[in-house]
Structure formats: C-alpha cells, structure tokens
Design goal:
Number of domains of chain B: 2
Mean pLDDT of chain B: 91
Radius of gyration of chain B: 20 Å
Distance between the termini of chain B: 53 Å
Largest sheet of chain B: 3 strands, antiparallel
Radius of gyration of chain A: 22 Å
CATH class of the largest domain in chain B: Alpha Beta
Low-confidence stretches of chain A: none
Strand content of chain A: 15-25%
Number of helices of chain A: 9
Shape of chain B: globular
CATH superfamily of the largest domain in chain B: K homology (KH) domain
Largest sheet of chain A: 8 strands, mixed
Strand content of chain B: 25-35%
Largest interface: A-B, 18 and 12 residues
Low-confidence stretches of chain B: 1-7
Oligomer: heterodimer
Structural class of chain B: alpha+beta
Strand order of the largest sheet of chain B: 1-2-3
Order of helices and strands of chain B: HHEEEHEEHH
Distance between the termini of chain A: 16 Å
Number of helices of chain B: 5
Shape of chain A: globular
Number of strands of chain A: 20
Helix content of chain B: 25-40%
Helix content of chain A: 25-40%
C-alpha cells in the first residue's frame, strides 16, 4: 500500500470529525478502528447510561442534532447509531476490526496492525481519554473475596455479588452508579474526595445552557491559568434523565447511600477513609455557588426574564463519618473504582510522553505530524463534549494540512 | 511480673501507681475519661504563629495546666520565611517522639525496668510537590515516617523491643498519625 498522508487511530467522535475535516481538504487518509465505529460506547458503558450532555451538545461532524428534543439525553445506543450515520454520510475511509499494535518512526510513521502495516506522513491519535480506569496501587491489598470493578466493566446491579457495594469516587460515574445500586436496594457506601457539585436545572434552564451562556466552556487552552489543573477536572457531576433530576450527595443520601471520606489506604484489612469529608463538601458547595453567581450576573447583564434563583441546600455531612471499614467483615462484596480514567497509548512507541506517561501536546499538536484528540481540555472545555470534536478537528486539520510534504502530481 | 516489686526496683520518675489507680477509677466512672484538649493559635507574621495551651476538659470538669505553655511555629529560609521556630511538621514529628518516649518510660516503670537513657530519632519523608500543588498525585503529608529508638536500660534486647512495641500500642499520637480522624474546620 502506498504511503498515506494521514492515519487516524480510533473511530469515535474525534476520529470521525478529523476524517471529515481531512476529506474537506482533500487529504488522503484511513481511519483504523479496533472494533466497530464508536467501539467504547458499544462495549465499555453500563446498560442504563445516558449522556449527561443534552442532544444539542452531542452533534456529530456534519450531523448536528435536528430532532424534536434538543434538551433530551440520549442513551449510549443512540449515540452509536448516530456515529454509524455520521461515518456513512461522510464516507469515512474506515478499517474496522483492525487493532493497532504499534506506531513507530522509520523514515515516516509505520503503523503495525493485526491486519497489515501502513506507512503515513502523519498520525492522529483519537483513541479516547477513558480507555483505562485509574486504580490506586493499594487496590492490590484488598481481601481476595471482594470483587473489584470499574465503570468500564460495570453493567448492571444484578451482575454484582449479592452484598453491599463500596463505590469509590464522586464524579459523574461514581454518583450515577451509586444511585443505580441504591435504587436496586443495595447497601451502598460512597467514598468522596475532592469533587464538584451542580444542579441539573437552574432558573428555568439546564445548567449546561447557562454555563455555555456564561462562557465557562470557551476559554482557549493557552489562556487558562493552570492548564494542568483544569485538565485533571473530572467530568461534570450530572446525569441525563427524562426528569432532569439533580444528582448530588444530598440526593444520594436521600436514597440511603452512606457517604464517607476519600479512600486513603488499606491497613490490616480495613479501608481507611480520610477525615476531610466536611471540607470537600464545603468546597464543592462554595464552587457551585460561585458558578451560579456568575450565571446570575450573566442573566442580569442580559436582562433575561427567568425564574428567581433557588440554591440547593448545603451538602449534608454526617456528624462523624465512618473512618474505617473492615472489608472482610463488613458485608461489602464489591468495590467500584470510579476514580477516573486515563488514555491507553501504550502502542505509541515514540518519545512523546511526560514523566507521568501522558502525551505532551500543545492543543493537540504533538509535533512532527503527530496529533492527539479527545483529551480533556485539549483546546477548550468544549473538547470534552461530543460536539466539541468538530472545532478541534478543523483547527488540527488546518495545522496538519500546512505541514504535509508536497507530493508530485501523478 | 509483680507490680509491687517493679515499683520498688525502677526509678524512672513515672508515677505508675497513680496511673494504675486512674485506670481502676475509670472502669467505675467512664465519663470521667472524656477529655477535650485545646490549643489557641494566633498568627504573628508571615508563616510565624504562636499557639497557647492551658485549659483542657477532663475528669468531668474544666482543668488547667499549672501555667500556660506556648508552642511557636514558622518555616526556614529555604521556604522564604523568617525561621522563628520549628515547622508545624517538625512539631508533629516531635509530638510523635515525645508520646512514644513517654510511653517507653511509663511501660518500663510498670515492668520494673530501670532506664538510663532513651533517645528517639524521627524522620518524615515529604515530597513538597504536594503542598506546592505541582503534582496532584503527591500527598501533602508524610509519605513515610521512621522512628529509631536507642534505649540504654537494665533489660534484654527483647525486653526493650517489647517496651517500644507496647508504647506504640498505647500512644495517642501514634494513633493520630497512623489512623484518620474527622476534622471539621469552621469560620466564626
């Protein structure tokens, strides 16, 4: 096969967006996908999951949402169907069921797959930010009788051993899974570290509508004070449902979930939870109210006629949250590590990683024709959203096109 | 070991008799064992602060030290500070060593072991990338603490090892450092 201009690795929203952006510039390329289009949304999501972003934020390249319910929250299966429509409509040059084994530099990029080896002038890494769960090293010290899973492997409450569940982590995944388990009648304990809090609806609209209007998603990556910090910020603590209900620690406690501090260590078979729960909850309330203050200011500046502000009650913190849990004797059968995710770039055999194993990049530009997409705050906070891939792809495709080696016309 | 003999043989300056009496009394009136310890800290300047301790609650009533004590804290020039006193983390290490050392003396007294000298060296490792916010994966506090005891006493090596082991089992600061506590910070 002749050398390609670009190989895109991954056919999710980022890879499809880049494919369309390259096609628009007449740049020859292939999109490699280890499974089918939208693979992680097909195979690494729990059954009940619905996107926490409304339909209008989930538009795909060339396929903006045009349905009757822009404020609705689609299930993962709907998103997968949209991915297929998007790929077909754009005529994306796909190689599905093709797993990349390595990318190396040998006078050009060599992409070895389990099907064939390709050569290209440039590479776009679009394999997603949530490929692997972040699990603390002390997980190895857990008693053997406790099942350990992550949101990537969790499917439904009935799959878990018929005991209590300790969910570790209070961002979107942990909150949603804890809620589902509590509703299924499971005794559920949620370990809570530094976290965020948001109401689903505020002053007559979805909170994300207000956040867009207040401009909080727009700041470009190169104008952020501490890009490292914002890139660590977990996904917003929201859930998508028909009732637009708020998902926070008060709602979970109403369902009987016990909240404890950050899971800090295991000592002598006992889980130890940090005594800082009160501070984490107070911080989340303060941050939420600062954001809502900004929304109020925007509403006032724009002279909008909307309902009056109604703020959530402060997070209820138990007087003496549990500090230890004897894992062998507590009746806990499962531990869900909802402690964040990281990408899986182990096949990228190039010196492009920082000391913590993360790809060094400047707004998605790694250098020498190498690009990465779909990472948190790649170019702005929009980069985290499905629809944000279109603008990122346009910017990076422009950069890529300018730097391709000139070829002689055939 | 016979306690009466022990009290006669060792002169470590710990009134074990009184402590044993308190233990017996507490079995009858457990509420008297509820203590609340306090410190009041005033900011002086920069990172320099001065804490004062005097009153505490215990034995069912408000109590007091015989006088007020102060503990000052600051940071060294390497932290661009005036170095008026030990750092708070060094005070934590000192508190751990003091608590364990008091325990060694008390247990030795109780076991009739005469001490000649007890020295504890404490080290705490810390990566300041945590407190400076450089790396979110690095904790603020100590990653490890080591205490090394050098004990000269009329006892075998195993007996001394047992003293040090028992002092950890009964140490408040050892427990505070090794196990979590709920901490609530409010603004008046």
């Amino acid at each position: 096969m002749p050398r390609l201009s670009t190989v895109i690795i991954g056919a999710g929203h980022s890879g499809l967006a880049m494919s369309r952006a390259l096609a628009g510039r007449g740049i020859d390329h292939l999109v490699l996908e280890r499974g089918q289009v939208g693979n992680s949304w097909r195979t690494e999501r729990w059954d009940s999951l619905r996107l926490l972003t409304p339909n209008w934020m989930n538009g795909l390249p060339g396929l903006p949402y045009a349905g009757a319910d822009p404020d609705g929250f689609p299930p993962a299966a709907t998103l997968v169907r949209d991915f297929e429509s998007c790929a077909a409509m754009n005529g994306a040059p796909l190689r599905t069921e093709t797993r990349v084994l390595s990318v190396t530099w040998e006078a050009g990029y060599k992409v070895r797959t389990d099907q064939e080896t390709l050569s290209s002038d440039s590479i776009v890494v679009a394999t997603g930010a949530c490929a692997l769960p972040n699990i603390p090293a002390f997980a190895d010290d857990l008693p053997a009788g406790i099942a350990q899973i992550s949101p990537i492997t969790y499917r439904r409450p009935d799959d878990l051993p018929p005991d209590g569940v300790l969910v570790v982590g209070a961002s979107a995944s942990g909150l949603q899974i804890a809620r589902e388990l509590a509703l299924a009648g499971r005794r559920t304990i949620l370990a809570v570290g530094s976290h965020l809090r948001l109401p689903r609806r505020y002053r007559g609209a979805d909170i994300l509508t207000w956040m867009h209007r207040a401009g909080v998603f727009d700041t470009p990556y190169d104008q952020v004070d501490d890009i490292e910090r914002v890139r660590r910020t977990p996904s917003l603590p929201l859930m998508g449902s028909d009732t637009h209900e708020t998902l926070d620690l008060n709602a979970l406690q109403d369902l009987g979930v016990e909240i404890v501090g950050r899971f800090a260590a295991i000592a002598e078979g006992k889980a130890q939870f940090s005594g800082s729960l009160a501070n984490f909850c107070a911080s989340a309330d303060l941050k939420m109210n600062r954001l809502l203050d900004a929304v109020d200011r925007r509403i006032e500046a724009d002279g909008l006629q909307v309902p009056d502000a109604e703020r959530s009650a402060p997070t209820r913190v138990p007087d003496a949250p549990r500090l230890t849990l004897d894992l062998a004797r507590s009746g806990i059968g499962t531990l869900v590590w909802a402690t964040g995710y990281r990408p899986d770039h182990h096949w990228l055999h190039l010196p492009v990683f920082d000391r913590k194993g993360r790809i060094r990049h400047d707004g998605g530009v790694i250098g020498d024709g190498l690009y990465v997409m779909g990472l948190p705050y790649l170019r702005s906070r929009h980069s985290t959203h499905i629809a944000g891939a279109t603008a990122d792809a346009e910017a990076l495709a422009g950069h890529l096109a300018e730097r391709l080696p000139r070829r002689h016309a055939a | 070991m016979n306690v009466e003999n022990a009290l006669k043989t060792a002169r470590n300056g710990v009134n074990t008799e009184a402590l044993m009496g308190a233990r017996a009394a507490l079995a009858e009136t457990p509420a008297a064992g509820q203590f609340t310890w306090r410190a009041e800290c005033d900011w002086v300047h920069g990172t320099h602060s001065r804490s004062t301790v005097q009153g505490f609650f215990g034995l069912g009533a408000e109590q007091s030290h015989t006088r007020a004590f102060t503990v000052e804290a600051d940071h060294p020039p390497q932290f661009a500070a005036a170095d008026n006193a030990a750092t708070p983390v060094e005070i934590v290490l000192s508190a751990l060593a003091s608590c364990l050392t008091a325990g060694v003396a008390a247990v030795a007294q109780h076991r009739g072991i005469q001490l000649r000298s007890v020295k504890a060296n404490v080290e705490g490792d810390m990566d300041i990338a945590g407190i400076l916010g450089v790396d979110a994966d690095v904790r603020n506090g100590f990653s490890a603490i080591r205490v090394s005891f050098d004990v000269d006493a009329d006892a075998t090596g195993d007996e001394i090892a047992a003293l040090v082991a028992q002092s950890q089992k009964r140490s408040a600061v050892f427990d505070i450092v090794t196990n979590p506590s709920n901490v609530k910070v409010t603004v008046a």
